Amino acid sequence: MSWLAGLFVVVGAVAVATVAGVSAAPTSAAAGHVRITWGVSQNFWDQFLEKVPGAHGVRVFYNTRNHIPVHWPAFLQNPWVTLSLRPMPGPLLSGKLDARLRRLIRSAPPHSQLTIWHENAVGNNPLGYPTPLRDPARYRRMQEHMERLVKGSNVRFGTIGCGPMLQAEKWFAPHLDWYGYDFYDNSRYWNKDGTLSRTKIWRRMDGNLAAFRAVSGQRYPRIVIGEANSPRNAHRANWYTFVARWFDTHDRRQPTRILTFWHAGSGLSQGGLSGPWPPSKPVIRRLAYLAKVYA
To answer: How crowded is residue 132: how many other Cβ atoms within 10 Å of its Cβ?
Structure first.
């Protein structure tokens, strides 16, 4: 029996299949979309691709300060890489890293994305970045410098924040190729009975879009979800479905990415925001389904 089989209920005019207590994404909402790249952080690419054969994206982190790899990261099956680097402000803005960065950028294949100091665009400092990074004006200059370096290449540059983007507008440079944020489930997105609220999730995403419109100067800036997950396995199928369906109506059907994040072992990490890979079979089936209908 298909995983979509089950009890069908009607929500408005949309038929939604309920399997194991989670709502399935209606095919009518996603039909015809050739634009959401689903993926995962680098340590789980092979395992993720085995379970989600429609995946195309990988998030790669180089966390050593001023380390610039010689070549763009390569994986089996040639996924589209979203690469995070940590160049320090002095060497970057003085041009001392330009030659190495240009060499890296020249080696990148089509569909490559680059960012620096992910989650620096936020009011607090969740990753404990050094003081020189915590000046919004300096960080914007760094982004502008990177945007100039990628011009004319296969690489598109953007910035990834976290938290409410309406509280972080000053951290984003205007006119970037894309804007992103990490997005994790927590109690602010729940109904009173503990289930996920699509309304609350979309309200945060609407606010983030408003912030990116303000800083980008574009009505429909390209948006990337750099990390996404829920600490509750029972929430994950709907979490990814609701996030994906927001893009159906809010961004003029532009290509985007939703990159999932997982950790090894059975305990929680990332402040309890993530979960272990692999998740339950219903979650894997949902991810495979979403990758298929949005690919």
So the answer is: 11
Express each pLDDT in 160-188 by its tens digit. Answer: 999 999 999 999 999 999 999 999 999 99
CA distance 92 to 171: 17
Task: Please choose, from the candidates 257, 186, 222, the residue with its C-alpha nearest in 3D space to the C-alpha of residue 40.
Answer: 257
In angstroms, the CA 91 to CA 4 distance is 54
Q: What is the pLDDT of residues 13-29, one digit of tens each?
A: 333 333 334 444 434 33
Is-contact 247 241, C-beta < 8 A? no
Q: Where are the beta strands (DSSP E) in the chain?
A: 7-11, 14-19, 22-23, 36-41, 57-61, 80-85, 112-116, 155-162, 178-184, 223-229, 256-260
Cα gap 136→125, rounded to integer Å: 12
Q: Does the domain formed by 32-293 have CATH 3.20.20.80?
A: yes
Among residues 252, 180, 256, the alpha carbon closest in space to that of 212 is found at 180
Residue with tokens 């109904």: 191
| Angstrom distance (rounded) from CA 95 to CA 60 | 24
Burial pattern 87-107, b for ≥16 Cβ within 10 A else e, equals bbbeebeeeebeebbeebbeb
Distance CA 127, CA 124 (A): 9
Tell me what pLDDT residue 249 has: 87
pTM of the model: 0.88
Residue 24 is given by DSSP the state P
